[in-house]
């Protein structure tokens, strides 16, 4: 029962798989071809690296040192929001939250100030930061593989939207957090594994190079081998269900796209640039941005407006991004509390992005 509750998304997609398989009766070959193994390999390699970085404890140590030097809520919020934005560009939005949110909860338990809403802002920050790079979140990993462009080109294209949304988030944070003094009790010294941290960043550099030269299948073997010999704990903490969930996503949305009703509905849609963007935003609010990205690309090869739409949509309803669900579960925030801050930011960011894309 605990596993069912924890991995509800995996079991939801598994249930959908059985329903669609009963109706469409796909062959094993159909199921195999539905899986984008390039994306699965990239996600698996990145998850091994980010799991190791989390285990090393470096970022918790680093962030704690920064917090000790801060004197008020506004400065604390701005620093943690900026750190969250930056880390999510490289560690993915989900993994960054696994580092930042426990740190914030630890700080919160040692001061009189209420930092509940800060976790919402950190969640928005990781969604904004992760949109910039092809390895910042799962939907970007998938869309980057489809685009067949360089890492630099992807960053330049996404930077058009990222920069104004980041500045908006900084302003939003500045306005909503008061310049109220914080009282931080002494905290214990945090240790970190320097060797694991260094090796992980070497692996990350090799990972980036392998993306550029399309040799990721060999890099994945290297990464698995390195961690097997230096830190077997990585295999214990690796999120296997996340990988299996993405495998099911590819299969389910390939099967969904074969339903005659869905095909007729999607064929009636006008696939111009802004319509694709708006459809990506809308569908992300219904069933999360990763499934939305996979589904929409079954009907269009104009991947850039899809990337803009599914990334901007992340800060809407809590279901729009897995990072949102993780944050709510971690901090035990109410959905209402989350939407109190996420929806206004989403609406402003959507309008700004729509205006920008209108002139592209």
Uncertain parts: none
Cα distance spanning the termini: 50 Å
Q: What is the domain tally? A: 1
The number of helices is 20
Give the overall pLDDT as a whole number.
85
Structure summary, number of beta strands: 0
Radius of gyration: 20 Å
Q: What form results from the Cα inertia axes?
A: globular
Largest sheet: none
How helical, in percent, are the residues?
A: over 70%
- Classification by helices and strands: mainly alpha
The string of secondary-structure elements, in order, is: HHHHHHHHHHHHHHHHHHHH
Percent range for β-strand residues: under 5%
Protein topology:
Blueprint: H1 2-6, H2 8-24, H3 28-34, H4 37-56, H5 58-68, H6 73-91, H7 93-109, H8 116-130, H9 138-147, H10 151-176, H11 194-213, H12 216-230, H13 233-237, H14 240-256, H15 260-267, H16 273-287, H17 289-296, H18 303-312, H19 322-331, H20 335-358
Helix pairs in contact: 2-14, 4-9, 4-11, 4-12, 5-7, 6-7, 6-8, 6-10, 7-8, 7-19, 8-10, 8-19, 8-20, 9-17, 9-18, 10-20, 11-12, 14-17, 16-17, 16-18, 17-18
């Amino acid at each position: 029962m605990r596993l069912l509750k924890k991995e509800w998304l995996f079991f939801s997609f598994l249930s959908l798989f059985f329903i669609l398989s009963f109706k469409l009766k796909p062959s094993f070959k159909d199921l195999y071809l539905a899986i984008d193994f390039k994306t699965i390999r990239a996600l698996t390699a990145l998850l091994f690296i980010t799991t190791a970085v989390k285990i090393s404890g470096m970022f918790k140590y680093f962030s704690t040192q920064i917090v000790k030097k801060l004197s008020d809520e506004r400065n604390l919020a701005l620093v943690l929001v900026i750190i969250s934005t930056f880390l999510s560009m490289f560690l993915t939005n989900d993994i960054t939250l696994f580092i930042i949110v426990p740190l914030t909860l630890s700080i919160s338990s040692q001061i009189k100030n209420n930092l509940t809403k800060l976790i919402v802002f950190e969640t928005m920050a990781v969604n904004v930061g992760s949109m910039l790079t092809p390895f910042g979140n799962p939907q970007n990993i998938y869309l980057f593989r489809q685009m067949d462009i360089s890492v630099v080109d992807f960053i330049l294209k996404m930077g058009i939207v990222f920069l104004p949304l980041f500045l908006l988030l900084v302003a939003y944070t500045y306005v909503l957090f008061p310049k109220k003094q914080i009282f931080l009790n002494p905290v214990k010294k945090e240790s970190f594994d320097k060797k694991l941290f260094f090796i992980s960043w070497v692996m990350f550099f090799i990972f980036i190079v392998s993306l550029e030269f399309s040799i990721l299948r060999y890099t994945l073997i290297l990464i698995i081998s390195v961690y097997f010999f230096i830190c077997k704990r990585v295999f214990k903490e690796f999120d296997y269900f996340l990988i299996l969930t993405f495998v099911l996503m590819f299969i389910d949305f390939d099967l969904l796209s074969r339903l005659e009703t869905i095909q007729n509905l999607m064929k009636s849609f006008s696939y111009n640039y802004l319509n694709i963007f708006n459809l990506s935003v809308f569908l992300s609010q219904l069933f999360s941005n990763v499934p939305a990205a996979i589904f929409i690309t079954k009907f269009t090869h104009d991947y850039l407006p899809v990337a803009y739409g599914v990334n901007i949509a992340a800060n809407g309803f809590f279901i729009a991004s897995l990072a949102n669900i993780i944050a709510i579960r971690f901090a035990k925030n109410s959905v209402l509390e989350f939407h109190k801050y996420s929806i206004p930011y989403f609406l402003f960011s959507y309008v700004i992005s729509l205006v920008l894309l209108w002139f592209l």
